[in-house]
From TrEMBL:
Signal peptide: none annotated. It catalyses: D-glucose 6-phosphate + NADP(+) = 6-phospho-D-glucono-1,5-lactone + NADPH + H(+). It comes from Lates calcarifer (Barramundi). Pfam families: G6PD_C, G6PD_N. This is Glucose-6-phosphate 1-dehydrogenase. It is an enzyme of class 1 (oxidoreductase). InterPro entries: G6P_DH, G6P_DH_AS, G6P_DH_C, G6P_DH_NAD-bd, NAD(P)-bd_dom_sf. One of its GO terms (cellular component) is cytosol.
Length: 486
């Protein structure tokens, strides 16, 4: 093998082959990444830092330019200053950072104004290779402006010679009706191959590892079913509250914000059948089949709650959800939810899938936990605990199995122990890429495997009606308000 380092074009070409079924591209090598909403928090904290990391590591095509668009009157220097705390720049990278921002430009304009988008298109065409460049549009915007922005992109900013791709941030609608309306609107403007609905959890290392664990190991195949699995628990916990984002959160709630996207996507990966291949369509076909087998959640299988302050706590721990000045007074929005789902197919019939998520809880954790059935014919006097397989998504990525082993020493008694693969111990010198790095790189390469397809959005009724229950239950004071749910 040659020891000559690959150029950035060659690196990107190899990634593109791996992620896009080795298809050959014939369009221009020039790419223009347009950040709609460049003045916002998402752009500042996630999008610009991610683009910088990809550029720094030589993972983007060599001829890539970045254009920010927002209503604010900004400059590239102002964007750089705002983003700097999140870029993680070392002293040796100052020159490369300057090179990155030299490829950045900014245009201000209104989201509903056609003339502003015509001006944006003129600017894109003026960039080196802009007339033939591939264009990627990232909608780092509130969903309320999606309609105007996407319509204006379609009418005024589409490339006529390269390809066009649009990245849409969740939530994909507030309920089933608005989700369908948004999907219909996007489909009237773009093909499904041009739309990338991003759920950053699908870019996390351990979420992506679920497929390899399941389908790359012989030992799990025979036991990954209702005969051996007693229950599956999917957990998402945050130790902090709304922290001034109460206005946004109160409009959507924990179910829309976490459960029906992050947790439901992980459930699909745990429960789906083996796809025919690792191609985007084959994987997403199997995920849809799982969702078709889940019936709407019944009222008796749901617990909702809202955190309150701890009088003996310190700092923010003293504050409850309603103490946040950005939360409407008397809000009945749920900040904690547990729901039990059942997948009615041959593999999983009768196995409860328990989805738990909440804010202001006792720790930060996201994990998938498979608890196996009891060992039949126990000969150890009920000392054996159930085996578990745990995939910890965050923090401290890990895969570990809880199992019984003989306690060391002269006594013949079992104790619970772990087979532990903690990434920071096993892969000490490996830097795990940020979820947004993986997903934005996927968009450049044309891989939709880790993005949400429209057909997946056709099945939210299993959870969307929980928000109606929330209003009814809270109005009659029958929902438990909780603090620090374990």
């Amino acid at each position: 093998m040659s020891s000559i380092p690959l150029s950035r074009s060659e690196v990107f070409g190899e990634l593109r082959k791996e992620l896009h079924d080795d298809e050959e591209f014939h369009q221009s090598d020039v790419h223009i990444f347009i950040i709609m909403g460049a003045s916002g928090d998402l752009a500042k904290k996630k999008i610009y830092p991610t683009l910088w990391w990809l550029y720094r590591d030589g993972l983007l095509p060599e001829q890539t330019h970045f254009v920010g668009y927002a209503r604010s009157d900004l400059t590239v220097d102002a964007i750089r200053t705002a983003c700097l705390p999140y870029l993680k720049v070392t002293d040796t990278e100052a020159e490369r950072l300057s090179a990155f921002f030299s490829r950045n430009t900014y245009i201000s304009g209104k989201y509903a104004d056609e003339a502003s988008f015509a001006k944006l298109n003129t600017h894109i065409l003026s960039l080196p290779g802009g007339t033939e460049a591939n264009r990627l549009f990232y909608l780092a915007l509130p969903p309320t402006v999606y309609h105007d922005v996407t319509k204006n992109i379609k009418q005024h900013c589409m490339s006529t010679k390269g390809w066009n791709r649009v990245i849409v941030e969740k939530p994909f609608g507030r309920d089933l009706q608005s989700s369908e309306e948004l999907s219909a609107h996007l489909s009237s403007l773009f093909t499904e191959e041009q739309i990338y609905r991003i759920d950053h959890y699908l870019g996390k290392e351990m979420v992506q590892n679920l497929m390899v664990l399941r389908f790359g190991n012989r030992i799990f195949g025979p036991i990954w079913n209702r005969d051996s699995v007693a229950c599956v628990v999917l957990t998402f916990k945050e130790p902090f509250g709304t922290q001034g984002r109460g206005g946004y959160f109160d409009d959507f709630g924990i179910i829309r914000d976490v459960m029906q996207n992050h947790l439901l996507q992980m459930l699909s990966l745990v429960a789906m059948e083996k796809p025919a291949s690792t191609s985007s369509d084959d994987v997403r076909d199997e995920k849809v089949k799982v969702l078709k087998c889940i019936t709407p959640v019944s009222m008796s299988d749901v617990v909702l709650g809202q955190y309150v302050g701890d009088p003996e706590g310190e700092g923010d721990a003293k504050l409850g959800y309603l103490d946040d000045p950005t939360v409407p007074k008397g809000s009945t929005q749920a900040t904690f939810a547990t729901a039990v789902l059942y997948v009615h197919n041959e593999r999983w019939d009768g196995v409860p899938f328990i989805l738990r998520c909440g804010k202001a809880l006792n720790e930060r954790k996201a994990e998938v936990r498979l608890q196996f059935t009891d060992v039949p014919g126990d000969i150890f006097g009920n000392q054996c605990r159930r085996n578990e397989l745990v995939v910890r998504v965050q923090p401290n990525e890990a895969v570990y199995a809880k199992m019984m082993s003989k306690k060391p020493g002269v006594y013949f008694s079992p104790e619970e122990t772990e087979l532990d693969l903690t990434y920071k111990s096993r892969y000490k010198d490996v830097k795990l890429p940020d979820a947004y790095e993986r997903l934005i790189l996927d968009v450049f390469c044309g891989s939709q495997m880790h993005f949400v397809r429209r057909s997946v959005l056709d099945f939210p009724p299993m959870l969307s009606h929980l928000n109606t229950w929330k209003l009814n239950l809270c109005s009659c004071d029958s929902v438990l308000r909780v603090l620090h749910v374990s």
